[in-house]
Amino acid sequence: MENNGVKGKAAGLVIIVFLLGIALGALGMYYWGGRALASRGSHFDRGKLLADMTREVGLTPDQQKQLEVIIADTRSKFQAINDQTQPQYDQVRQQARDRIRAFLTPEQRPKFEEFVRRLDEEREKRDQQRQRR
Predict the structure, then answer these.
(1) What is the 3-state secondary structure (H, E, C) of 2-29?
(2) Which of 9, 27, 42 is the endpoint of a domain?
(3) Among 83, 96, 116, 121, which one has the highest count of C-beta atoms within 10 angstroms of its own C-beta?
(4) What pLDDT shows up at residue 32?
(5) Interatomic CA distance for residues 125 and 131, integer angstroms
(6) Residues 88 and 3: beta-carbon distance below 8 Å
(7) For residues 89 and 69, what is the distance between their CA atoms, to the nearest angstrom?
(8) Whole-number pLDDT of residue 7
């Protein structure tokens, strides 16, 4: 009998450790994922890059001007790529929303539409901020 009690406690301990591992893993992914997305969405600071390269590489004023041209050209190329692919992202986003709408109740749909409206506004603000930089 005593052996069954020990086995039960051991099994319970294994389950608790397993669940803690899942919780810590999920927390780590949430934290790491949030940091990765935040860094991806953060703006590019031309001035910082220019200052850092000037300091660390020892750029001359003429080289700084050349670097500024390269940065501007690269940024415009990145924007062109984004402009080409954005419709694909929009289509996938719309398909996902349609799939979600399909399983929502009539009471949930207006709440979902309000939620989506807020998400779209936030995305638009981020896009406008990025374009200004």
Answers:
(1) HHHHHHHHHHHHHHHHHHHHHHHHHHHH
(2) 42
(3) 116
(4) 66
(5) 10
(6) no
(7) 30
(8) 80
Residue type, 1: M
| Same-domain status, 130 and 77 | yes
What predicted TM-score, i.e. pTM, was given to this entire model?
Answer: 0.50
Taking 70 as the pLDDT cut, the residues of the chain under it are: 1-2, 27, 30-43, 133
Encoded tokens for 50: 């220019």
pLDDT at 4: 76
In terms of domains, do 55 and 16 share one?
Answer: no
Tokens of 2: 């005593």
Q: Show the tokens assigned to 119.
A: 């998400």
Looking at the structure, tell me whether residues 22 and 52 fall in a common domain. Answer: no
CA distances 100 to 89, 108, 132, Å, are 17, 11, 33
End-to-end CA gap in the chain? 72
Query: Domain range holding 24?
Result: 1-42
| Number of domains the chain is built from | 2
Does one domain contain both 83 and 131?
yes
φ/ψ of residue 105, rounded to 5: -80, 165
